Amino acid sequence: MESTSQTAQQTQTGQTWNANQYAANGRFVADLAKDVVALLAPQLGEHILDLGCGDGALTEQIAAYGAVVTGCDASASMLESAKARGLNVVPADMRSLPFQGEFDAVFSNAALHWVTDLPAVAQSVHRALKPGGRFVAEMGGLGNIAAIRVALQAVMTQFGIDAEKDAASRYPSRDEMRGILEDGGFRVTSIEIIPRPTLLKSGMEEWLNTFRNGILSKLSEADRQSAVDQTVALLRPALCDAEGVWWGDYVRLRFHAVRE
């Protein structure tokens, strides 16, 4: 039976997280975040909020610059792992952050696309920032994991599940996200869409079990394995190379915006 925190998390994001599984199969997410951390350019003594901090791998990197970092996440499993790193973290829904004008910057990597109500997130971040504070983030953009999503949708339909709806994810275009930020009270200083085919060292089956766990958990164990096998078979011609190496068809949206 799911815990209350797991249920709340899945309501927010359509996904449940296991920190150990993520560390084994999803570490590439933090490893590929060098450019967005550089865009943040953390400064000594700055108060920075890491929005959707996960297990704290990037939070730790930002703190190493001398910034005073607070991490927040909706996943109890992830927060426990972040706490084990000695980080200051709090449970929070990014749509309704419990902060008012406290931060010089809000940073987020690979988290915003797990929430469909992005206008609420922008408004919540605006409230958390000091005047002139910056919002720097990278997330999935238009076309992100398109082949994976189409294949999974086709397979899950036979089980009566709408994979796109239940994933509760949103991958905006550059213009859409610019509008959301501007409507939320930000001046956008840079925003770009970045196609980034991404090596999946653990393979597609492990990716599905890690990053679409919320959807697959709706199935019995036997049906889940069948759904994964069918999805992998559909994707093999497009995303598995001649050497048997899997690649995710990632597209990132990266932006820097300033609170007006």
TrEMBL record:
It holds the Pfam family Methyltransf_11. GO terms for molecular function: S-adenosylmethionine-dependent methyltransferase activity. Keywords: Methyltransferase, Transferase, Ubiquinone. SUPFAM superfamilies: S-adenosyl-L-methionine-dependent methyltransferases (SSF53335). Residues 49-136 form the Methyltransferase type domain. It comes from the Bacteria. Gene3D superfamilies: Vaccinia Virus protein VP39. InterPro entries: Methyltransf_11 (IPR013216), SAM-dependent_MTases_sf (IPR029063). GO terms for biological process: methylation. This is Ubiquinone/menaquinone biosynthesis C-methylase UbiE. It comes from Terriglobus roseus.
